[in-house]
């Protein structure tokens, strides 16, 4: 029955797309609502019908553009059809992404749209969510709503990104992400989340920003593998052999992505400071944690009492030195790649070092009390590092003219 619903949804979306240029405003959304009601009464797919009805209402009242309405439906149904026909092997993730892009290109051509960034982000988010949610009952409904809303967000930014730029970003970001997957430093969700981050960085801010993030990834991978056998003996090694998943990617990269988008839209240099500060914090924290844990008993950052290795909030002299090196490394990359000047270098170095200690403090005060997990600590630490760096840069810029 579910396969039948997928085919019906796909065919209906194509038919509605064909007649949409001849329909008054809002009518395409109304037709999607009618289709959702039909699915509600004729099948057991209640969540899918609710999701269709939701985006149909957004289309009816003019919030969701016709392009996003139909593209979202076709991206999700195309992905569902590919996985249902091929059995869900690893290669099908790439095939689903490619087919989703092709069908979205057809939608753009037919409607006279040029929204390649929305298409790429929508297709990537769809496959990423599938890799996370798998065969959960309401997975398709979640994918449909999230893809539509994310594409709407990209459209509302009104950021001009031509096909050559977006295409180059896809090749570079997915190329490096696939390489990381083959090296077992990222799993499938990590691959697509890292590629999504890479595409956004390149499109909104440029290849240099992506290379800074790549430098962090390489540094983190090297640090993770440092004395791995010893870490295993202490049971403090990264899960899955250090392969990064989507939670790790977004916890460490969400602030950076927001900074890149902010810079792309406004061109204000404060977003450069925020970006370097967030990446420097993530790098400093990763290196400090992975190397510092091998230096013997750490001390709790709040009381300086000895604690077992791997304890949240534990710090050591070697870890602090390693963290400072990580912050300096990322800041120096910013200078070498022409992204930062000396004032930004100093601000990011200090902000990143403070950020990694903020991570330890948050881990002790909140994570150890189970108020949130490690991802929450990482996100808040990178946010703090970004803000501190931006403030320091503003102060330095004021006094240096």
Short précis:
With 401 residues, this protein is an all-alpha fold.
Please provide a written account of the structure:
Keywords: Membrane, Transmembrane, Transmembrane helix. InterPro entries: DUF92_TMEM19. It comes from Methanospirillum hungatei JF-1 (strain ATCC 27890 / DSM 864 / NBRC 100397 / JF-1). It is a multi-pass membrane protein. Pfam families: DUF92. This protein has 401 residues and is mainly α. The protein is 76% helix and 1% strand. The chain starts with a helix and ends with a helix. The chain has a two-stranded antiparallel ribbon with strand order 1-2. The chain folds into 2 domains: 158 residues, no CATH class; 241 residues, no CATH class. The model has no long low-confidence stretch (mean pLDDT 89). Helix 1 packs antiparallel against helix 4, helix 6 runs antiparallel to helix 7 and helix 9 packs parallel to helix 12.
Keywords:
mainly alpha; 76% helix; TIGR00297 family protein; 16 helices; two-stranded antiparallel ribbon; DUF92_TMEM19; single chain; membrane; 401 residues
């Amino acid at each position: 029955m579910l396969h039948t619903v997928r085919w019906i949804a796909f065919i209906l979306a194509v038919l509605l797309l064909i007649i949409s240029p001849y329909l008054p405003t809002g009518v395409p959304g109304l037709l999607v609502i009618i289709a959702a009601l039909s699915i509600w009464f004729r099948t057991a797919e209640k969540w899918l019908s609710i999701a269709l009805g939701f985006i149909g209402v957004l289309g009816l009242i003019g919030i969701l553009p016709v392009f996003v309405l139909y593209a979202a439906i076709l991206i999700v149904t195309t992905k569902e059809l590919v996985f249902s026909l091929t059995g869900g092997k690893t290669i099908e993730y790439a095939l689903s992404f490619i087919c989703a892009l092709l069908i979205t290109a057809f939608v753009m051509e037919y409607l006279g749209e040029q929204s390649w960034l929305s298409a790429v982000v929508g297709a990537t988010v769809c496959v990423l969510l599938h890799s996370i949610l798998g065969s959960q009952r309401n997975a398709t409904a979640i994918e449909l709503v999230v893809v539509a809303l994310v594409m709407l967000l990209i459209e509302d930014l009104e950021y001009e990104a031509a096909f050559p730029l977006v295409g180059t970003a896809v090749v570079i970001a997915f190329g490096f992400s696939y390489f990381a997957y083959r090296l077992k430093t990222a799993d499938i969700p990590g691959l697509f989340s890292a590629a999504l981050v890479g595409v956004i960085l390149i499109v909104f801010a440029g290849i240099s920003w992506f290379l800074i993030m790549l430098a962090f990834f390489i540094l983190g991978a090297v640090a993770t593998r440092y004395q791995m056998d010893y870490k295993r003996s202490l049971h403090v090694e990264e899960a899955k052999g250090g392969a990064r998943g989507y939670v790790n990617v977004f916890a460490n990269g969400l602030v950076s992505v927001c900074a890149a988008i902010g810079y792309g839209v406004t061109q204000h240099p404060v977003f450069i400071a925020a970006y370097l500060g967030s990446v420097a914090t993530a790098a400093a924290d990763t290196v400090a944690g992975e190397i510092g844990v091998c230096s013997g008993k750490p001390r709790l950052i709040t009381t300086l009492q000895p604690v077992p290795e791997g304890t949240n909030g534990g710090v050591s002299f070697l870890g602090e030195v390693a963290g400072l090196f990580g912050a300096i490394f990322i800041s120096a990359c910013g200078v070498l790649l022409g992204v930062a000047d000396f004032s930004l270098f100093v601000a990011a170095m200090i902000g990143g070092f403070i950020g990694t200690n903020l991570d330890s403090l948050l881990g002790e005060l909140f994570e150890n009390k189970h108020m949130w997990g490690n991802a929450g600590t990482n996100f808040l630490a990178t946010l703090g590092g970004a803000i501190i760096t931006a403030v320091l840069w503003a102060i330095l810029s004021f006094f240096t003219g």
